[in-house]
Amino acid sequence: MTTPWPPELGSMSFGLDAAEMRRRGEEELGSARRDLAALERRADEPTLEAFLAPLDRVLLRAVNVSLQGSLMFQVHPDPATRTAGRELTEAAERFFAEFRQNAKLYAGLGRLALASEDAPTRFAISKMVREMRREGAEAAPEVRARLLELNAEIDRTGNQFMENLARMDRSIAVRGPDALAGLPPDFRAAHPVGADGRIRLTTKYTDFMPVMAYCDDAAVRRDLLHEFMNRAYPDNDRVLATLLDRRGELARLLGYPDPAAYALEDKMVASPEAVRALLDRLADRLRAPATRDIDRYFERKRRDDPRAARLEPWDADLMGRGYYDSKIRSEEFGVDARALRAYLPYGRVRDGLLDLCRDLFGITFARADGAEVWHPTVEVYDVTRNGTPLGRCYFDFVPRDGKFSHAACFGVRQGLAGAGLPQAALICNFLDPNVRRDDARVEWSQVVTFFHEFGHLLHAMLAGQPRWLFNRASNVEWDFIEAPSQLFEEWARDPATLARFARNPDTGEGIPEDILARLRRAEAFGRASRLLRQVALSAISLEFHERPAEGMDLVATWRAAWSKYYPRALPDDYHFEASFGHLTGYSACYYTYLWSMVIARDLLSEFETRGTLTDPATAARYAEEILAPGGSRPAAELVRAFLGREFTFDAFDRWSDEPTDAGPGRGSV
Length: 669
What we know:
The chain has 26 helices and seven strands. Helix 12 packs across helix 13 (323-331) and helix 24 (616-627) runs antiparallel to helix 25. By secondary structure, it is α+β, with helices and mostly antiparallel strands. Among the domains are: 9-100 and 102-138, Endopeptidase. Chain P, domain 1 (Glutathione S-transferase Yfyf (Class Pi), Chain A, domain 2, Up-down Bundle), CATH 1.20.1050; 168-229, no CATH class. It is globular and about 80 Å long. The strands form two sheets. It has a five-stranded mixed β-sheet with strand order 3-4-5-7-6. A two-stranded antiparallel ribbon has the order 1-2. It has helices at residues 18-40, 48-75, 79-100, 103-111, 119-134, 141-167, 185-189, 205-214, 218-229, 235-253, 259-264, 272-304, 323-331, 337-340, 346-361, 444-462, 483-493, 495-501, 513-524, 527-546, 554-565, 582-585, 592-608, 616-627, 635-643, 650-656; strands spanning 171-175, 198-202, 363-367, 379-385, 388-396, 408-413, 423-427. The longest helix has 33 residues, at 272-304. Strand 4 and strand 5 (388-396) form a beta hairpin.
């Protein structure tokens, strides 16, 4: 199967220069505006066929301009094209802001006769009407004008935050190979000494994560973590202050007390009070085991340095995992992540994942080597399910200057029934650019991230051709959006799944079964402290959007919220607020990851009761009940249909309380 570039965007493609991409995108948005004006004349006596269906198609065209622009802004190697992409996303956002405030179209949607229509249609229209109300369709003309200005400025400011983060990577220079003691051989080979006698280490994930996990030189870890925690500082503190101020004004104009109340109204939890209750509940359960984790890190450090007075941020766990976490996993659980890398060449991991999707869901991925891409390292696949085309996907996994520096699934184009197939891109930064792509080893934690983002991709593909635009996967409640991806992580943790593809290509040896069993036990270690870190970040996200922006001390607010929930203080010279990119897209809703995790653990229980994660019948039912409906039903109904009951915290509580003792079979890989 070869999916042509969508006709809705004419010949717009990744190969266009900045000026031509900008021109075509603006032309498409101008045409969409004219079509909306024509639809206003049908709003007095609207029907689904003559009003809603053409309205959906007009919005689809604008969505695809926005998706194309956003992707190019985040990944294109040419700075001018990235700028043009950013400008197109901002132009598309202005288009949508104008649409949402269109009183005639809003009234027309309210006049639609829906009694005989199906539930997904009624739900799509209810979400469209709610979104327009929340954007000012019922406001006075002068208020709508100011809301348009604010939405445009919020969009520009959020883009500026992310642009600064992408281009302001930092680095350190260390003297000689001895500074890399403890790091895996493939990492050291990819970081030779330069002409100046120094080795450059960057804050990109391909350097940062291995250094923080394995480097024996504490000074190297300290210096690199300092640079990582200060990316885009001080520039983004000013940008963030502006973003919070404009969000506050917009919320007040729409009648909300603060941006948090506005952001949470249409989510599953619905209110800041409910989020606060969630965070407090989780913190109460996690504080004691998290403190025990931290004490174990410190005890292990004292074995190296009996005079050590405290655990430093570069020692363990501040950013998820760390040096003494790796030490304990190796020494007490017999799991050495450096040795695991030998079994995890990217090519085998990727192919194993694609084979898993074939066996679980009947989904196949065929290389589309002739397809146009934005960079030579990008891989392209055409996706089918049981012989039926689903869409196209792109893998962009090599870091480069100016590229999005985290990991995410980006839309490339939105599909719609009768109007083309979806396309999506996984953007990650796993692969060392100095190593042949398929041979490059990846961290096991990166394998988990790969599976996580792939969960989003599966959602986008399986729900990629809804009847109505507001039934697409990205229109499910936002605090459910992470549940499918968090669930899919579990296949990366499943010994039976890992055994399918984790194999050393040099020896042909697979990971020994006892190591896989120990890896699973080791996963419980440090879980409480990692989850508590997520609680603290969620509280920060909420706090920034509940407090008045005027006069807010960003650093003090961050530290107060962090200290309330997390038992280790941040150094005074860390400014993670300047690189916390989720503050742009998620605003007050970073709690989404924890809420979705609660749901994901309950969904997983359906597989666990079968005794295997690879039961095809359960996988097929999951695909049909959770993924394929996209946003055609409320998320709570999707979960209820799959579980046969309301979801509970029970599975999450059992998982978060899982014992962290090493158990039998200690020894190293």
